[in-house]
Amino acid sequence: MPSQQEIRALTGIRGAAAILVVVYHYLALGAGSGLGGAFIKHGYLAVDLFFVLSGFVMALSHGRDFPSGYALAPFRRFLTKRFARIYPLYIVTSFACLALWLVDGSVHDRIPAPSLLTIASNVVLVQSWAIGPSLNGPGWSISTEFFAYLVFPILAFGLLHGPRRAIPPFLALAAALLWTLGRLPDQAVHQDVRFGPLDLYIGETAYPLLRCLVGFSLGVVAWRLTSLPVCRRVMAWRGTGDTLVLCVLLLMAVPSSDLILILLFPALIMALATGTSLSAQILALAPIHRLGVLSYSIYLVHFPILTHLEPRLAALFEGAQVAHPHLMSAAILIPVTVLLSLASFRLVEKPGRRLFRAAPADGSDAAPVVASGARP
Questions:
Q1: What's the CA gap between 348 and 359, in Å, rounded?
Q2: 369 - beta bridge partners?
Q3: How many CB atoms lie within 10 A of CB 81?
Q4: What value does the mean pLDDT of the chain take?
Q5: Which of 10, 44, 13, 48 is nearest to 27 (CA)?
């Protein structure tokens, strides 16, 4: 695994996942039942890839800080960095959505009514702890991941520094929990729209929180497994990463493959982290890497654009009798989202991190500096 340098492939796959989420939100409702439709509808699983990737990166960067669970000084530093990384853009885009609700009545079916509880819970990032909805739709995953940060010292203590014999039972438990979540009926999860069995995002229930914690914990375990010589050898083989990428892409087009895909994500990230495969080299290319740097902005900025502009642009295309109006609007607004994300990165993310002296100086959440010789 690379030492003392950025893991560019992990930044790249984060960018690819962010674009997949945006495409999913634009096109999933109109996607058919064929292979292409299945692929687009599986785009919701890119958020689970984020969760696994985040757990892997947190374990890599901070796992050694919590050998015995909570310790005040390292936990304060850890939370300061994470808060500085996620909060400034999150709160700006949340209030942007609140402003849209106030001035644009057409968005009321996509942005929740701003009750005092909704605003307060969103401000303190706890809305998806079985409390309520997110003002900015993708904010549900930021809220659940914030919870994962709060319990990270416990996860590090048990999964990184605990006995290795506990890992197989944990993996079996994680798979069983994901299978159980996937079996929940729509009525139980309070969702009318659900593109896959694990497409759980309604903050009034605890299911999104469980979904995040399982994925995040799988990422922590994936980093722990990199300490095993046999895992390092297998994942460092050039063909491993390419085989896993191919399997994931093929399974994305297969209905009902959701659980298998999530369980493949930890191995995929482990293999890409070695940087030896052709897939890792492609993901590390400058344009894809740059998307990874902007991925957080892309993820949070796209929803206000989708909510406010897409219906209007699609209506214009329909009035002009242009074929596939929603596809055409997506083709225009997705590049616009990337451009606006570049602006939000420079004007909100970077200045926001500078408000916290302990915040990391680089732009990537998915590609940390690997401590020399770091092993869990």
A1: 14
A2: 6
A3: 18
A4: 92
A5: 44
| Phi and psi torsions of 198, nearest 5° | -105, 15
In angstroms, the CA 221 to CA 158 distance is 10
Q: What are the b/e assignments for 35-57, b being 16+ CB within 10 Å?
A: eebbbbbbbbbbbbbbbbbbbbb
DSSP string, 136-203: STTHHHHHHHHHHHHTHHHHIIIIISS-GGGHHHHHHHHHHHHHHHHT--HHHHT-S--SSTT----T
Q: How far apart are CA 303 and CA 110, in angstroms?
A: 10
| Residue 57 neighbours by CB under 8 Å, 6+ apart | 10, 219, 365, 366, 367, 368
What residue type is assigned to position 76 of the chain?
Answer: R
Structure tokens, 341:
């994300």
Best CA proximity match to 226, nearest among 75, 5, 57, 78: 57
Give the mean model confidence (pLDDT) for residues 246-268.
Answer: 97
State the Cα–Cα distance between residues 210 and 148, nearest whole angstrom. 10
State pLDDT tens for residues 27-56: 998 888 889 999 999 999 999 999 999 999
Residues in the chain, overall count: 376
For the chain, helix, strand, coil in percent to 5 are 70, 0, 30
